[in-house]
């Protein structure tokens, strides 16, 4: 018995019944508007006294409902109601407003169907229970059989009176069956009418791609800034420990460089994490550029025990901000790789020059015999390739003449780097101490 009643009166069936009654409630304003149209045409003073007038008003109101379903909030609200009351998986429904003719047509069809079935089930839910209650108690309440109540003559027979409670219970079961069946139909048709269209899927894919691009950019920033800082601080601390008693002045410089490196990296880390926090504005720490911090980057690298020679043949202050920022990260990663894979005593040569409208960057260091590569490789070169690709440049990295050489060529006039200085002859080189 329980297995028979659960599809009719179970929790899911009750929630879907509520969903239908809500549709009937939403249909009432449209039905009232329909009576304003139908009443004068039929010449009826009591518009709700005739079932024909009621059905005609209902038929006039549904097209009005289809028109109002074009409001942007209709599909999100209907999808939420279907998800919670009809038990439809959220992945099968679209959350955003309907855009495009196909999506709007489907939303209009769904809204009309919901209000149409809801109006019918809501009307039955109002009318049938009182009628069924009268049938159930009719054999036991003689006053209800008074001719003044206008009962059908068939109830004057004993057999009809005896079957009245059965008919009352059957009518309630029929109402529950109609409501359950309508709820199942709506739940089955909801994914087709409220589900995402190809345009919705394309927009969602573009949003995911944009979010992934932002996350990848933040990951590169974290890798380059924090990775460089950790490598430099580790080597600076190691070098200071080895000469702690012999060279206090070097130890003092190393500790100063560690303090400066960590303070700057904390500021960059706060700026990046600010973007990741929901509802939080990005940090205020400025992004480092070649013009603003190349000398500081070289000084902190030398404090780790490396010998760095820099030859600059480009007007760093005139470079576009985007190009200067990305070039800084490329130089930083090149120095980090030299420290990480070669050691504190490495000699690194950094060159930057303008040539034929391109900024050419070269970071070169000897290949140590004891250099080791981490299992699976790191992400430094991958990040450099991603930065160079976004700017429309080229990158080459690998052994060359007994050294490890990183060579990057970036267009100064690339759209991502504009506005920039006009292309021209190579700028006279400048030695950075």
Main attributes of the structure:
11 helices; 433 residues; alpha+beta; 6 strands; Heat Shock Protein 90; 61% helix; 2 domains
SSE blueprint and pairings:
Elements: H1 2-9, H2 11-42, H3 51-68, H4 74-85, H5 101-137, H6 158-194, H7 198-242, H8 248-276, H9 290-303, E1 307-313, H10 321-342, E2 347-355, E3 358-366, H11 380-390, E4 394-400, E5 403-411, E6 430-432
Parallel strand pairs: 1-2
Antiparallel strand pairs: 1-6, 2-3, 3-5, 4-5
Describe it.
By secondary structure, the chain is of the alpha+beta class. The protein has two domains: 2-196, no CATH class; 205-432, Heat Shock Protein 90 (2-Layer Sandwich), CATH 3.30.565. 61% of the residues lie in helices and 10% in strands. The protein has helices spanning 2-9, 11-42, 51-68, 74-85, 101-137, 158-194, 198-242, 248-276, 290-303, 321-342, 380-390; strands spanning 307-313, 347-355, 358-366, 394-400, 403-411, 430-432. Strands 4-5-3-2-1-6 form a six-stranded mixed β-sheet, covered by helices on one side. Strand 1 (307-313), helix 10 and strand 2 (347-355) form a beta-alpha-beta unit. Helix 1 (2-9) packs across helix 2. The radius of gyration is 39 Å and the shape is elongated. It starts with a helix and ends with a strand. Mean pLDDT is 81; it is low at 279-284, 369-377 and 414-426.
